[in-house]
Amino acid sequence: xxxxxxxxxxxxxxxxxxxxxxxxxxxxxxxxxxxxxxxxxxxxxxxxxxxxxxxxxxxxxxxxxxxxxxxxxxxxxxxxxxxxxxxxxxxxxxxxxxxxxxxxxxxxxxxxxxxxxxxxxxxxxxxxxxxxxxxxxxxxxxxxxxxxxxxxxxxxxxxxxxxxxxxxxxxxxxxxxxxxxxxxxxxxxx
Amino acid sequence: xxxxxxxxxxxxxxxxxxxxxxxxxxxxxxxxxxxxxxxxxxxxxxxxxxxxxxxxxxxxxxxxxxxxxxxxxxxxxxxxxxxxxxxxxxxxxxxxxxxxxxxxxxxxxxxxxxxxxxxxxxxxxxxxxxxxxxxxxxxxxxxxxxxxxxxxxxxxxxxxxxxxxxxxxxxxxxxxxxxxxxxxxxxxxx
Lengths: 190, 190
Description:
- 2 copies of one chain form a homodimer.
- By secondary structure, chain A is α+β, with helices and mostly antiparallel strands.
- Chain A has a domain of about 120 residues: Sandwich (Jelly Rolls), CATH 2.60.120.10.
- The first copy, chain A, contains 9 helices and 8 strands.
- In chain A, the strands form 2 sheets. Chain A has a 4-stranded antiparallel sheet with strand order 1-8-3-6. Chain A has a 4-stranded antiparallel sheet with strand order 2-7-4-5.
- In chain A, helix 8 packs across helix 9.
- The radius of gyration of chain A is 17 Å and the shape is globular.
- At the A-B interface, helix 3 and helix 5 of A face helix 3 and helix 5 of B.
């Protein structure tokens, strides 16, 4: 069942025969995380790419002040990893943890590299997922530099219409860089 | 001569036969820019990817204050475009201009898309260049949020040892977000 969603996602992007798709899927392992369990901890090198089949995860980093800053969310259907750590093989500057019971399909970097060689059409998948990751980080960077918390809130609602059903308010406030009280105010007067 | 450097660059990343490489190269046009001429202007949609064979270019954006902020540089051997504008087909939030006489080989987005179909190995080139772009923007974002002008200066010297031979001081100061006088001070006491 979980693998069906992964296969559909891959088929949307590139062509694999059913046989190839079965071999590719076999390289993914199922990982179940309970609430507050980690997929990746700050300081570890990210040596995987994961596909979320159920649940919600957050990316966050620990600031010098000791506070946590939520930098991103991931929901069912999203791909999850720390690309900077994975591509540069450096320690991750952030952690990724489940904020509710979650299920993921995880492929290790070395198996992915092997796929690029064995199934050249994996390159298309890799290229398009990197383009999507680039678009996301570029938009986040511009937003952080230029737009208000209220505009970021509206943008978030547009990108993730059901985020308030899935993510506790304090994580969203933290992501927007504002106090939970301010977020409640913005929600009343968007 | 210019095309030789492009071909070597492509061969470093992926396999093309000489015949394929010739067909691929034929899709690139030579563009010569004089000092202060634009490759891309803010507000235009970036519909190309370019490879610098000679010269120096800067990326910059016009701030609300009316000042220009240099966000990146490009030298011979670098690929140049505004990926966010190109991939999302949206107006570019920044301009790219030559700060000395420069030569580029430019491929239009639609020809590149066509290459992905005709020569699947182009996907590998696309994937790896996107990974490099991702690594660059991710590092810049973290740097902007976390490290001092002095550390950014040292990092720049490490990444581009001859930047002071190629780029006038005021652009570098602008990129580092400091006054030219402060940069002179840092250079004396790195």
